[in-house]
Specification:
Oligomer: heterodimer
Distance between the termini of chain A: 33 Å
Number of strands of chain B: 3
Order of helices and strands of chain B: HHEHHEEHHHHHHHHHHHHH
Shape of chain B: elongated
Strand content of chain A: 25-35%
Largest sheet of chain B: 3 strands, mixed
Helix content of chain A: 25-40%
CATH class of the largest domain in chain A: Alpha Beta
Structural class of chain A: alpha/beta
Order of helices and strands of chain A: EEEHEEHEHHHEHEHEEHEHEEHEH
GO molecular function (chain A): ATP binding; ATP hydrolysis activity
Largest interface: A-B, 30 and 28 residues
Strand content of chain B: 5-15%
Organism (chain A): Ligilactobacillus pobuzihii
InterPro entries (chain A): AAA+_ATPase, ABC_transporter-like_ATP-bd, ABC_transporter-like_CS, ABC_Transporter_VariousFunc, DrrA1/2-like_C, P-loop_NTPase
Number of domains of chain B: 2
CATH topology of the largest domain in chain A: Rossmann fold
Protein name (chain A): ABC transporter, ATP-binding protein
Strand order of the largest sheet of chain A: 6-7-8-3-9-10
Distance between the termini of chain B: 21 Å
CATH superfamily of the largest domain in chain A: P-loop containing nucleotide triphosphate hydrolases
Keywords (chain A): ATP-binding, Nucleotide-binding, Transport
Chain lengths: 299, 410
């Protein structure tokens, strides 16, 4: 398990990370979300020992050392490969830096190239590959040594939906093998699709931390999806309704409540004891939570 | 250790497998080969086109034969008649022809040519004619053996040359000085830009984050440094081994043999000046400048600035190089003594003093120790802050980037 306790990091006048604490558990995927500059990359760099910090970062109760790095797979935000190498040379070079022997990695290369559908042979130069295929090779370099802690900084950025699915499948496969995985993302749909837990950063502080359900339930079931013949104006006048949004489907609306307990009363008013196609009271989506928390004013 | 070795071998292979390295390392041999080849062929062509040889014409066969026997390399023996000699002279195939005859017990020699006979051949010809005339005179005077021996007595002329070892040493010192400082300057200018470029180009690609997630920045830096040192050692070794091989290949050639005979002691002095502790000053000098170049390379914001990054190193080496020139004949000056202990300068100035034989063993050891210590401390410091320097990519001023790098470092 990765344990981060009271992590703080300052660059001159800027407090990049402020008293951050959270855990990343084996067999789980943790999403680290936050706006640009929230401190996600600085948090990753702290875990990887790139910089000095105050606080404590432990992997299986031990500080992270050069040997521990062998158990970590890291994909940085910006993709970068050594262009003059072949695919095989590149994979082997990085695997050797992870303490693996070339003989142990060589037989695995074809299998991984097939798994990620890389269009290119192992002897092809990196610079001859398309940008998408280079991204896949970089991901293979991150995962081929079977890391126990996987850190992915914006892994979905720049991937088309097909490749994003390949990545999701690979990440889920690694999770099932017991790896502890943490990744940052701006795209809440990807976080919602694969994450078990969520940590949201704002100006270096943790503003949300928990499982997806725990986080969403913190906000109460204040979203009401209804399909009703009631006109838009009448819906706006319902008690505890703060806002009504017309959704794309006909007669389908989203009602925002200021009190989750008002649902029962609205249900009774809307249906009048009659059949209704849709009445679903939900907590806010992650996207909405993200917007809400990102827009909050500091106390 | 394995990770360090992985970085060393990768850096080494990356440098050595390039065409530019191959050209750089082979260029002196190619230059020697080309200039030697051109010299050989032009010499051959000119020797075919014209000659310094003469023809010897004489009706007295024994006279002609004994002249040719004594001056084999100066005579074209195939030309035997005056007519053939005239044609050969007109075609510029001989320098001239010598007519030999005896008349009334007197030897008569007449040289025909477009220019006067060269002095060396003239001396040899006069010696031949004198000896011939002398034997004719003896024969005509009917001297007995004892009288002939008395008349044949020659004066004893001896030359006692004062030992010129000091002047040879001085010339050798000047030659060694120029070879040393130029070698130092050329090698470190090359490796300073190679190292700065290599590091700056990596910084631009951000591959550093991936590498630093596997090994420590300090380890990676030392690996890079040792890889480049490996390349430098390879270059020096190729020059030493290649130079020795070329020497073995050409030493049997007449021109080389003549050169070795005439300048053997000078060459020995120059080699003795260069192939000693000066090689250690050369090696550690290049290493300390390489570390500085790596540091400069790590401070750029983007790969395009790599050439600018090497500038501080290049300027410093130029300063050291040009400072040596006014002192080439004054190695015992105070400034030379001071700078021979200052790292970055000592690799130029201490070899200068060693060549001049004006530094004691203690002074040499102290200077080398200080240089090695500076290499170790600088490498340790740059290794310590390397991660911070390589990971920050803000395009701000030099000092802001440096401060930000220090703040980043663990």
């Amino acid at each position: 398990m990765l344990t981060i306790k009271n992590l703080s990091k300052r660059f001159g006048e800027t407090q990049a990370i402020n008293d951050l604490s959270f855990n990343v558990y084996p067999g789980q995927i943790t999403g680290l979300i936050g706006q640009n500059g929230a401190g996600k990359t600085t948090a990753f760099h702290s875990i990887l020992n790139f910089l000095n910090y105050s606080g404590e970062i432990l992997w299986n109760d031990q500080p992270i050392t050069e040997n521990t790095l062998d158990e970590i797979g890291y994909l940085p935000e910006e993709r970068s490969l050594l262009q003059k190498m072949t695919i095989e040379q590149h994979i082997l070079y990085l695997a050797k830096l992870k303490g693996k022997r070339a003989q142990a990695i060589k037989p695995l290369i074809n299998e991984w190239l097939e798994k990620f559908q890389v269009k290119g042979g192992r002897k092809d130069l990196i610079k001859s590959l398309s940008k998408g295929n280079q991204q896949k090779v970089q991901l293979i370099c991150t995962l081929i040594h079977q890391p126990k802690l996987i850190i992915l900084d914006e892994p979905f950025s720049g991937l088309d939906p097909v490749n994003a699915d390949l990545l999701k499948n690979a990440v889920v496969e690694m999770k099932e093998k017991g790896a502890a995985i943490i990744f940052s993302s701006h795209d809440m749909s990807n976080v919602e699709a694969v994450c078990d837990r969520l940590v949201m950063l704002r100006k270096g502080r943790s503003v949300l931390n928990g499982t997806l359900d725990e986080v969403r339930e913190q906000f109460g079931r204040t979203e009401l999806y209804v399909t009703s013949e009631w006109p838009f104006e009448k819906l706006q006048q319902l008690p505890h309704v703060t806002e009504v949004t017309q959704l794309h489907q006909a007669q389908r609306y989203l009602l925002h409540l200021d009190d989750p307990n008002a649902g029962k009363q609205i249900f009774a008013t809307l249906t009048g004891g009659q059949y209704i196609t849709e009445f679903s009271q939900q907590p806010p989506t992650l996207d909405e939570i993200f917007r809400m928390k990102a827009g909050e004013v500091d106390e | 250790m394995n990770k360090l070795w992985t970085v060393i071998s990768q850096t080494y292979a990356n440098q050595v497998k390039t065409w530019s390295f191959l050209l750089f390392i082979l260029s002196p041999f190619l230059l020697i080969g080309i200039s030697g080849g051109v010299g050989y062929f032009s010499g051959k062509v000119s020797s075919e086109q014209s000659t310094d040889q003469i023809a010897v014409i004489s009706k007295e066969k024994s006279l002609r034969t004994s002249y040719i026997k004594q001056n084999k390399s100066d005579v074209k023996p195939k030309i035997t008649t005056t007519k053939a000699a005239r044609v050969a002279l007109a075609d510029n195939k001989i320098k001239g022809y010598l007519n030999l005859t005896t008349q009334n017990q007197q030897v008569i020699a007449t040289y025909h040519g477009t220019e006067a006979m060269n002095s060396s051949l003239k001396n040899k010809t006069l010696a031949f004619l004198n000896s011939l005339q002398q034997s004719l005179n003896y024969r005509q005077a009917k001297l007995n053996q004892n009288q002939a021996q008395i008349l044949a007595k020659q004066p004893n002329f001896a030359q006692k040359i004062k030992d010129n070892k000091n002047s040879t040493k001085k010339i050798a010192g000047t030659i060694s000085f120029w070879i040393m400082v130029f070698m130092m300057y050329m090698i470190l200018i090359n490796y300073a830009s190679v190292t700065a470029n290599e590091i700056a180009s990596e910084k631009g690609t951000k591959i550093m984050e991936i590498i630093f997630s596997s090994t420590t920045p300090a380890n990676y830096f030392y690996g890079k440094l040792l890889g480049v040192v490996g390349v430098i050692v390879t270059q020096i070794a190729v020059y030493l081994v290649g130079g020795w091989a070329i020497f073995l290949g050409v030493k049997h050639l007449k021109v080389v043999n003549d050169f070795l005979t005439s300048s053997g002691s000078l060459i020995k002095e120059v080699l003795a000046d260069l192939l000693n502790i000066n090689l250690a000053f050369l090696l550690f000098g290049v290493i300390i400048y390489t570390i500085l170049a790596a540091f400069s390379g790590a401070l750029v914001a983007k790969a395009e600035d790599a050439s600018k990054a090497a500038q501080p190193t290049v300027y410093l080496s130029m300063l050291a190089f040009f400072l040596t020139i006014p002192f080439q004949d004054n190695a015992s000056a105070l400034l030379v003594k001071i700078l021979s202990y200052v790292p970055f300068f000592s690799s130029f100035f201490m070899p200068m003093r060693i060549i001049d034989h004006s530094a004691s063993l203690f002074e040499i050891s102290l200077s080398l120790l200080l240089l090695i210590l500076a290499v170790v401390l600088l490498a340790a410091y740059v290794g310590h802050i390397y991660g911070g320097l390589m990971l920050q990519t803000e395009d701000t001023s030099f000092w802001k980037r440096f401060r930000r790098g220090l703040a980043y470092s663990k």
